[in-house]
Amino acid sequence: MDVQLYITGTPLGNLEDMTYRAVETLKTVDVILCEDTRTTRKLTNHFGIDTPLRAYHDFNKEESEDRIIEEMHEGRTFALVSDAGMPVVSDPGFELVARMQEEGLEYVVIPSGSAFTLALVASGIPSYEFTYFGFLPKTGSKRKKKLKEIMAHELTSVLYESPHKVKDTLGVIADIDGERMISISREITKKFEQHVRRPASEMLGLLDGEIPLKGEFVIVIEGAEPESVHFDIPAAEHVEALIKEGLTPKQAIKKVAEVRGLKKQDVYDEFHETKK
Questions:
Q1: Does this chain's domain 3-113 share its CATH topology with 116-227?
Q2: Angle at Cα 214 formed by Cα 56 and Cα 81, nearest 5°?
Q3: Which of 40, 188, 210, 271 is 20 to 30 A (C-alpha) from 73?
Q4: Coil, helix or strand for 33?
């Protein structure tokens, strides 16, 4: 069966990172699906691509999906791009891929870099195992709760942050563990690309000085030491965090009791009390 969708990576910033295969694909498909037609038009103009653009983003993806699938069955071909980097990662698209799987339609992936992988490579922080958290929740209480979970995580953590929120985020991180090693990357692949690695409390003092508050930020956080994991949160939240990491409730309760020197029954009771 012919391919109906090409999930096409684009440059993060430097247009010279565009691959020959990506350029040829965007020239030959019938329609390019993109987050912002204005942003993608700059890319297509640079490479002399005159393929029609169609908006596909979080606000119209549901209503657009049926039409796209119908056109695919009629033989039209599409490329899916994001404003920068790989589509689908922290962007809409997985829903369309899932629908295509259900419909028996074919797709391929044309790769490019993602900001979080480049930042991880440049961080100098262990990268054998890591967890990508994407963007934090927007509201203050949910953001702080998520950061506490991330800071208690034993693996290296990677997340995205905007320039106007990065100081607040680093402040919460430093309050939780000012000695934790942090790497900040900004303007990746662009003229003023920057990577800085420091303890959290020291990093906070560099923001809006050595580290300008411009461009999108990627924060890489060193994993928590096993013996100190989750001690700044209640035992019930500690159990919840371990369950999210893949443990069963029974395993998580046993581990929390062991590392905190508590009775399993006490941890069990506290955990299940929060579920009522």
A1: no
A2: 20
A3: 40
A4: strand
What CATH number has the domain spanning 3-113? Answer: 3.40.1010.10
Q: What residues does 156 pair with on adjacent strands? A: 130
Query: Residue 219 and residue 159: Cα distance in Å, rounded?
Result: 5
The CA distance from 37 to 20, in Å, is: 21
pLDDT of 145-182, one tens digit each?
899 989 988 899 999 999 999 999 999 999 999 999 99
Other C-beta atoms lying within 10 Å of the C-beta of residue 188: 25
- Hey, what amino acid is at 223? G
Sequence-separated (6 or more) residues with CB below 8 Å from residue 30:
51, 52, 76, 77, 78
pTM of the shown model: 0.78
Domain positions in the chain are: 3-113, 116-227, 234-273
Alpha-carbon span 220 to 122, nearest angstrom = 10
**Of 69, 73, 135, 60, whose CA–CA distance to 97 is shortest?**
69
Architecture per CATH, domain 116-227, reads as 2-Layer Sandwich (3.30)
- Are the beta carbons of 18 and 79 closer than 8 angstroms? no
